[in-house]
Amino acid sequence: MAEVAAGSPTLRVCALYPDLMNIYADRGNLLMLARRCEWRGLGFAVMAAGLGEGVDPDAHDLFYLGGGQDRDQRLCALDLVRTKSEALHAAADRGALLLGVCGGYQLLGHRYALAGEEIPGLGLVELETIRSDGPRLIGNVAIEVELDGPDGGRRVLAGFENHAGHTHLAAGEQPLGRVLKGHGNTGSSGLEGVRRRNVVGTYLHGPLLPKNAWFADWLIATALGLDALDPLDDTFEDAAHAEARRAAGV
Question: Taking the mean position of all CA atoms in its chain, how far away is CA 25?
Fold first, then answer.
């Protein structure tokens, strides 16, 4: 493992509710970020922020919120609004990256309606999620995305989705990508996820980043404001990505 070189930047990550919002091995995404930083001699620091704990909007480059069961998601949503919403809005305004996966994605919007109640969201993007009584949207999925910056361009993200919520983007909001295979936000819109500048949400997990090493690198470079990252031997990572694409039929 490469040592952190003197003067190298450190990727500072705030993991929101990692003990509760980790139902789909989302912690693997944090491990992927850590390893790809370490292999390049970049620093990596992660801090957890749980129930009742505030966050410093200026202390982190990337805020990460994974997925959870409805009960845990409800607890975290109420806590987000009470103790973290103002700070996360301030972080987004200054350009920090915010990544929400599955349940975390749903909480980036204004509300999640289910079973006669509404779970409040952060309102960082204009979207709402409504739980459907129909079949769950589940299976392997691949989407085409087009991102700016290092390691961007038109690429494919592949993963797994499993959600009963149908997420509807308001007019003017941009999806993260276009569905190639799978269901996406609603099963019929042909859209998946959301991206408003540095706020990104997606239903892809399994976990997401080990299946898409290039996207992990995009997050690292974008969060640190780097023009490029040193290349790595991604033989295994490329094979994992290819297998995820094959599973989705792309």
Answer: 13
pLDDT of residue 2: 56
Known binding-site residue numbers for substrate: 136
- Cα–Cα distance for residue pair 122/86, rounded to 1 Å: 9
CATH superfamily name and code, 10-248: Class I glutamine amidotransferase (GATase) domain (3.40.50.880)
Tell me the one-letter amino acid at 172.
Answer: G
> Which of the residues are catalytic?
102, 205
Instruction: Split the chain (250 residues) into runs of 10 and give each run's mean pLDDT.
Output: 72 95 82 97 97 96 91 91 97 97 95 88 96 92 91 90 95 97 97 97 93 97 95 97 97
